[in-house]
Amino acid sequence: MESEKEKGFATRCVHAGEGHNPFGAHATPIYQTSTFVFDSAEQAAAAFSGGPGYRYVRSPPGTPTHAAFVEKICSLEGGPAGLSFSSGMAAEAALVFATLQKGDHLLTADVIYGGTYGLFSSLLPKFGIEVSFVDTTDPEKVEGGLQENTRLVFLESPANPTVAVSDIGEISQIAHEAGARLAVDNTFATPYFQRPLALGADVVVESCTKYIGGHGDLLGGVAVGEKELISAMKRPALLAGGTMGTHEAWLCLRGLKTLHLRMERHAENALRLARFLEAHPAVEKVNYPGLCSHPQHAVAKKQMSGWGGMLSFEVLGGVEAGRRLMNHLKLASLAVSLGCVDTLVEHPASMTHAVMPKEVREKMGITDGLVRVSVGIEDGEDILADFAQGLDKIGGN
Ligand SMILES: Cc1ncc(COP(=O)(O)O)c(C=O)c1O
């Protein structure tokens, strides 16, 4: 593990976590089992009283396939410990179960994935946990939003779907001074472009459903961070379930082997599309951290090594024009999720963020006319040509 950290990112994508294989298998095997057999009652008792080893797949570390995946993602995120989950939401649920209790306060970003918003706004208050939402792109607002009982600050950067960027280093200092931990959802950037733990965050969560799996064929989640916090998440992981399937762990392990290559191409195509859209007369506004017009372009430049593959934009003519565009795209598919090899578009107001009240959405820039694009790794010219022909159609032809 130590020596792997010294190797380059691409080498770790390929090699970290691999190679602990019996019988000389070149690829890490899928340990398709639900339980593990012990040599003796004493060995079993030791394993169940906190000792090392595999027990039952719901109990971390699951199987050697899960362990290999977690070792690889820990190496890439630069964290000492990690846990895998059945989805990004399961990872977030375990995080809040582990860090918050009745009477505590969670301070979270106002721009976040709709499912996360639903978990925080409707489920946590039922357990006596106070939740407030602030604009985390402004560190002063974060400072102003902290309370004596704030135990956790949670943000996404870049955030879904406006790609708003928050200053992770500055916010981690503010949170720590107030005795709170900082959790960062790194789903959009991935460890290839941003490493929140190195910037000061205590824990990173990611939906593996997206760029980690990378091919739109699995659901998964992961948390990586300081040992004590990850240990505290093991109990909710075990008792609430939300266990990553073994086949999914293997797909994530395989997906990560090409993360560096895919992310480069996603970002190259996204920048081309962002520039094309920004210059297009039918487009009102483009949100992409790589554009100088992005309000937090300088913060993104400071903490990210690339801009990622996600963008959103508004077409002139609002929701009707946006719908016409999405209905006319031929290469890009209309679907939620993101981070797949192919280009996906979706309408946050009626799809991923429909759970948010309209006035809450609009205040943070999730307007009815906003279209989100997960830019794929196809040929850039083909993606541009698809949007060009789609935008030609919004006049009603
Ligand atoms: C930024 C972000 N975080 C978390 C999630 C939840 O992940 P999952 O769908 O794997 O539960 C999503 C899902 O779209 C997301 O976009």
Walk me through this protein's architecture.
The protein is α/β, with parallel strands linked by helices and about 400 residues long. About 40% of the residues lie in helices and about 15% in strands. The chain contains 17 helices and 12 strands. A 7-stranded mixed sheet has the order 1-7-6-5-4-2-3, with helices on both faces. A 5-stranded mixed sheet has the order 8-9-12-11-10. Helix 13 (about 260-280) runs parallel beside helix 17 and helix 15 (about 320-330) packs across helix 17 (about 380-390). The radius of gyration is 21 Å and the shape is globular. The structure holds pyridoxal-5'-phosphate. Pyridoxal-5'-phosphate binds near residues 89, 116, 160 and 209.
Number of helices: 17
Rg, Å, rounded? 21 Å
- End-to-end span in angstroms? 59 Å
The CATH topology assignment of the largest domain is Aspartate Aminotransferase, domain 2
Q: Examine the secondary-structure arrangement and name the CATH architecture of the largest domain.
A: 3-Layer(aba) Sandwich
Q: Give a count of the beta strands, DSSP E runs of length 2 or more.
A: 12
Regarding CATH, which class of the largest domain? Alpha Beta
Helix fraction, binned, reads 40-55%
Kindly name the structural category: alpha/beta
Uncertain runs: none
What percentage of the residues does DSSP assign to strands (E)? 5-15%
User: CATH homologous superfamily of the largest domain, by name?
Assistant: Type I PLP-dependent aspartate aminotransferase-like (Major domain)
Number of domains: 2
Shape: globular
**Order of helix and strand elements from N to C terminus:** HHHHEHEHEHEHEHHEEHHHEHEHEEHEH
